[in-house]
Structures are given as structure tokens and as C-alpha cells.
Write a structure and sequence with these properties.
- This protein is an alpha/beta fold.
- It has two domains: 10-105 and 114-251, Aspartate Aminotransferase, domain 2; 256-352, Aspartate Aminotransferase, domain 1.
- Helix content is 39%, strand content 15%.
- The strands form three sheets. It has a seven-stranded mixed beta sheet with strand order 1-9-8-5-4-2-3, with helices on both faces.
- Strand 4 (133-140), helix 6 and strand 5 (162-166) form a beta-alpha-beta unit.
- The radius of gyration is 20 Å and the shape is globular.
- The two termini are 15 Å apart.
- The structure holds pyridoxal-5'-phosphate.
- The site of pyridoxal-5'-phosphate has 15 residues, from helix 3 and helix 4.
């Protein structure tokens, strides 16, 4: 047997980039600016250029990026914030952490992303009930595919809601050339190692074209700083990206466009080979996915995963539990059957190995 297949092969990527990454890290160790060193500013400029926005502001992780977005948009108790129920916990967690109420929305069966029809239905219901103030939408670029922003932006405008793009999995994707991270009022991403663009620890970033938001985020991420970090003009947090992680990301960003091409080739191959056996993921016309995951729908997921396991191929379930089924959100009072598509997906999907080094 040759090298075993890895679900996400971070070691192969490191071997490929070792010399350059090691040199970048060594530079940081020598100049000694471990916090907010020059690599952080350099990365922020490159991220903004790549995504095509005025401001990219790095922070400690993708969850903090969402929390910082909630702070800037002044999301608070009594606010309703709409998000998909089929997502990673942090999307909904940060809404609750801001003391607002997460309002879950069902998914589209073909793209796995938030369903705009169900979104509008639930916004209307909330308006009619008149208990909570509809404030914002958090759309997620699940598994690397941008959500349906043309439609979601229309809905946000119609109901005067702020829009946050959770691009933790979406970085690198696009709709008609417009990149993930450039949709909505504020977008966030994560550099967790397994994400499409990952560092060697935790990391995150926030993207916006709004100068005022950008200034606020820079203050909130360093203890609500004014002129400097000992002049504190608001309550903030400590959420900076380490200089060493910025150094790693600068090198990874250089090869990222090629990795994206390779990931897309791997996904096309999967689709060719598997579309007779499973329901394979749909990429709508004009969309490019960054393939954070290659996720299929199977009638009997468990037996399929067993077959792969017997061949030494690792598979994973993202996600087996929707947000409305999580213990932490029990108090919201949702029940089985409230989100039929998302529940169906949670029962049937599994993900195959995906990275730019599948060979
Ligand atoms: C990973 C992820 C996050 C959180 O990112 P961290 O860097 O792990 O905090 C948020 N939203 C989604 C959809 C994610 O996949």
C-alpha cells in the first residue's frame, strides 16, 4: 500500500511548501513582533485584494469574526437573527452569544445552503408575531459553495435587515467572479487548519467595504482601543491573529489559486464517478465552490461509509445534528419536523476526502 488517503492532507501541503513556510516563520522569530507584526498588515492587504473588498481585518478565529460582526451591527437582546439550521454550531452560537435569538431556516436540498423561500416565510412570521425585532441574516457558504446571495440580498433589502456572510468554509468560492467574503454588509472567515485556506492554529478574518465598520472592528479586536490599547473607549475583546499564523497564511495564499483549481478537478472527478450511485452536490451556473467538503447524499449512509472504511478511505458526517436539534438550543422550543429538508440532509449526507493533493 502507498500512503494512506487522508481526509484533509495538511502534511502533504506542508511538505510541498516547507522551505517557504519555514523561512517565513524564521523571519518572525528573528524580528520578534509576535503580536500585530508586519506580516499581519501584509496579509490583511493581500486578503482584501484577493476577495476584492476595501478592508480585511484579521482576528483570532472564525467564531470571534462572527462575534465581532455582531458587535459592529449592534445585535442585541430582543433581536431576531436568521440563519440556516444545517450549519456548524458557531454560526448560531455567536447569535445567542450576542444575546439575540437565532431564528433557524430550512435548507435547499440541492445546494445544502439556506433556502431563500423559507427564509422569507420565517421573516414574515417574525414580523407578524411582533415579539422580536428582525435585525439580520447570517448566510453560510456551506461546504465551500456561496449561498444564493442575489436572492438573499434582495430579501435583506426588502425587510431592512443586515446581512452577514459566514464564509468560514467559502473562502475562494465565487458567484460570477464575485468572491466569497464580498457579500453582505460584513463577511467573516476562518483559517482553522481544515478550512479551504487554513493556518497552523486558529485564525480568522472579517471583510467589509464599510470604512466605519472597519474602524470599529479594529477597535473591538483590541480591547475597544481608542488612540492605543491603553485608551479604551468601548468594551471589546482580545482577538488578534498571531504574526506567525499570518506568516504561514502569506505563503499558503500564494499557492491557494492553484489548490483551488486542483480541488475543483478532484470534485469533478468525484462527480463523474459517483453521480450514478449518490446524489452529488450541485454547483449552480456561474458559481465556483472552494470545496471545503465534497458531500454526497446516500440512501443508506452508514453502509456506504463502512464500504469506504474497508478500503482505507476516511469519510465524515457534516452535519449529523441540525442547530434546532442541539441540546444548547432546546429552550428555543423547536421540534422534529420543523425543518424537513435540513433534517433529511442530516440523516443522509456524508463527506469524502477533499484537498488539493489527492494525486
Ligand atoms: C469553522 C466554522 C466557523 C468557526 O470558525 P473557527 O475558526 O473554528 O472559530 C464558523 N462558521 C462555519 C460555517 C464554520 O464552518
Amino acid at each position: 500500500m502507498t500512503n494512506p488517503v487522508q481526509f484533509i492532507d495538511l502534511k502533504a501541503q506542508y511538505q510541498h511548501l516547507k522551505k517557504k513556510i519555514d523561512a517565513r516563520i524564521a523571519t518572525v522569530l528573528e524580528h520578534g513582533h509576535y503580536i500585530m507584526g508586519p506580516e499581519v498588515q501584509e496579509l490583511e492587504q493581500q486578503l482584501a485584494d484577493y476577495v476584492g473588498v476595501r478592508h480585511a481585518i484579521t482576528c483570532a478565529n472564525g467564531t470571534d469574526a462572527l462575534t465581532l460582526a455582531m458587535m459592529v451591527l449592534d445585535i442585541q437582546e430582543g433581536d431576531a437573527v436568521f440563519c440556516p439550521t444545517f450549519t456548524f454550531f458557531a454560526t448560531a452560537e455567536t447569535i445567542a452569544f450576542a444575546n439575540a435569538t437565532p431564528m433557524f431556516v430550512d435548507s435547499n436540498e440541492d445546494t445544502f445552503n439556506i433556502c431563500p423561500i423559507d427564509l422569507e416565510k420565517r421573516i414574515k412570521q417574525t414580523v407578524d408575531e411582533g415579539k422580536l425585532t428582525p435585525k439580520a441574516i447570517v448566510a453560510v457558504d456551506l461546504f465551500g459553495l456561496c449561498a444564493d446571495y442575489p436572492e438573499i440580498e434582495r430579501i435583506a433589502k426588502k425587510y431592512n435587515l443586515k446581512l452577514i456572510e459566514d464564509a468560514a468554509q467559502g473562502f475562494g468560492g465565487s458567484i460570477n467572479g464575485k468572491k466569497a467574503g464580498s457579500f453582505g454588509d460584513i463577511a467573516t472567515t476562518s483559517f482553522f487548519p481544515a478550512k479551504p485556506l487554513g493556518c497552523y492554529g486558529d485564525g480568522g478574518a472579517i471583510f467589509t467595504n464599510n470604512d466605519e465598520y472597519a474602524e470599529l472592528i479594529k477597535s473591538y479586536r483590541v480591547h475597544g482601543k481608542g488612540k492605543d490599547k491603553y485608551d479604551n473607549v468601548r468594551i471589546g475583546m482580545n482577538s488578534r491573529l498571531d504574526t506567525i499564523q499570518a506568516a504561514v497564511l502569506l505563503e499558503k495564499l500564494v499557492v491557494f489559486p492553484q489548490e483551488l483549481i486542483d480541488r475543483n478537478k478532484a470534485a469533478e472527478k468525484y462527480t463523474r464517478q459517483l453521480s450514478g450511485t449518490y446524489k452529488t452536490p450541485l454547483v449552480p451556473e456561474g458559481y465556483v465552490s472552494s470545496w471545503a467538503q465534497y458531500t454526497v447524499l446516500a440512501k443508506d449512509r452508514d453502509s456506504e461509509m463502512e464500504k469506504y472504511k474497508a478500503q482505507g478511505i476516511p469519510t465524515m458526517v457534516y452535519y449529523g445534528t441540525c442547530m434546532h436539534q442541539q441540546t444548547a438550543f432546546k429552550a428555543l422550543g423547536y421540534k422534529q419536523g420543523d425543518f424537513p429538508v435540513a433534517e433529511f440532509l442530516a440523516d443522509k449526507v456524508f463527506s469524502l476526502p477533499m484537498h488539493g493533493y489527492l494525486g
